[in-house]
Amino acid sequence: xxxxxGFLDELRNRISLSQVVGRxxxxxxxxxxxxxxxxxxxxxxxxxxxASFHVDDRKGYYYCFGCHAKGDAxxxxxxxxxxxxxxxxxxxxxxxxxxxxxxxxxxxxKADRRTQLVEVMEHAAQFFALQLRTGAAGPAxxxxxxxxxxxxxxxRFGIGFAPDGWQVLWDHLTAKGVPExxxxxxxxxxxxxxxxxxxxxxxNRIMFPIRDVRxxxxxxxxxxxxxxxxxxxxxxxxxxxFDKGRTLYNHGPAREAAGKGxxxxxxxGYMDVIALSxxxxxxxxxxxxxxxxDTHLQLLWRIAPEPIIALDGDTAGLRAAxxxxxxxLPLLEAGHSLRFAIMPEGKDPDDLIRASGAKxxxxxxxxxxxxxxxxxxxxxxxxxxxxxxxxxxLDKSLRAKIKLIKDPSIRAHYGEALKDxxxxxxxxxxxxxxxxxxxxxxxxxxxxxxxxxxxxxxxSTKSSLLAQPGEDVGDHLREAVIMATLIATPAVIEDFEAQxxxxxxxxPGHAALRDxxxxxxxSHAQDADAFRQxxxxxxxxxxxESLFALPHVRIVPPVRxxxxxxxxxxxxxxxxxxxxxQRGLASExxxxxxxxEGIADEAVTWRxxxxxxxxxxxxxxxxxxxxxxxxxxxxxRINRDERSxxxxxxxxxxxxxxxx
Length: 660
Hints:
The protein has 660 residues and is α+β, with helices and mostly antiparallel strands. The chain folds into 5 domains: 7-96, Alpha-Beta Complex (DNA Primase, Chain A), CATH 3.90.580; 107-242, DNA primase DNAg catalytic core, N-terminal domain (Alpha-Beta Complex), CATH 3.90.980; 251-366, Dna Topoisomerase Vi A Subunit, Chain: A, domain 2; 473-575; 596-658, no CATH class.
């Protein structure tokens, strides 16, 4: 059976080689760099103890330095599953969610035609490159020199010139015996409406060959030399070879450069990409005559986990950035996001590099802001929120955007980040209410970073906060029990990963330990010793020693019985439920305080009572000192600190009602 044109390319774009290979090998995480798609493991094709089998996830190829086995995802499935080529295609297609095409007796004929069209495009690229050296192309060469392009750059990018004539390219190709239907099919000429000969699509333009990821010329972009031309930039029409919504300019070289550690930069046009590449930013790409599509985003994330969108600093560029945000929100996954480098007003990357050099561009890339910050800026910039109605409108808008995110963990983190920004904007007392111990944020400015990092203690610090809980002792102790349980029995992490990820981390030591546990889980969760060693390597042995030395941790059953999965699951479920309910009550108190800025009514007391009752249900399984607790609204039991907070709120409510 023959496959239709482009099917295998689409299949390779949709699958991750590291995921395919990962089913058969155990990755060496000390040698691998998962963020760059650079993975190492013992070879599955021959017996060895060292990790000499290398997978380059971005390029889609593997190679063993021991037995010299090499290939792509298809060859790996063929060798490891002992199947034929079409069976391997079917296996990967099912995994990628691609439907296998019906048997098509004409598929081979179509593939042959695509090969012929590629040959025609290469003939045209050579013709345009030669034309750039003629006398008629003098103004084009002057323009390129003025833009700072040197001869080696022109050769590297294959830049050429289309003469100012109606059938110059047509005559050249037909004289070489190229069939007319192939010239038309390649998008190089258009049929005449008056019955005359077809005419060239590109005339009197600087020509930029557009190549696919394999380096084959599939289309052209042309920059008009006549300032009166209706279209300053003109791309080839969509053809059997070219789909502008699925193509990136400079895709192949950018993927190779990103694999070597260069940041992936998404610019607006050919000249921006060329200027960036010549300045040393060789992992630069651009969409072609269209806004960024969801397919573009998938292609970008296949190259790098966090591309930087570097759009022009004008109104159109900012609008384009905002459209990218709406497109990207439903597609976000853990480790896949975007950052934005907003150019100075009126400048694009090419302008900035020519005016201020590569250092200025690097400084702008270093200050690229996370997508959540640009989303907040869009929803709030230039607006005044001086009434409850306007604040409610902002809340509604933000909730609508957060709902677009499909990944529950990312959705939760976005909600938390946006809520923090909202509290900062309105100056509400969140910290005093005890609802968050996250690191404080600084105000966003175009010239500086958005985030202020929380300090992380050195591993050798004996006075770790793990050993010295702060004011919120109960929650602090529960976090310690949770993390000790996970380290003792890491096999249960998968069952509670989302809740662990949302856990605050009441001090920097807890936060660092939580993050280390989540990072070590994918590779070592089934091997307790390896897992504990991986966590210890990251946070330091002293931190773990301090954690397990805590009296309330030592007596916990899953710590005394490491590896007891059922015991660990029960403890995790109980402690996480208590932590969640405790946070819920504190959050209700904080939000009730904010509600009192408007009109207070009985709903506030009802909400507080419900939250206290939920917390009480979670605590009933544990013996409590009855003298520590009193009765709250609806009969819920709360501790004295919470009682004081509720009393203060009730006084406010009474005062507000009397003053109506």
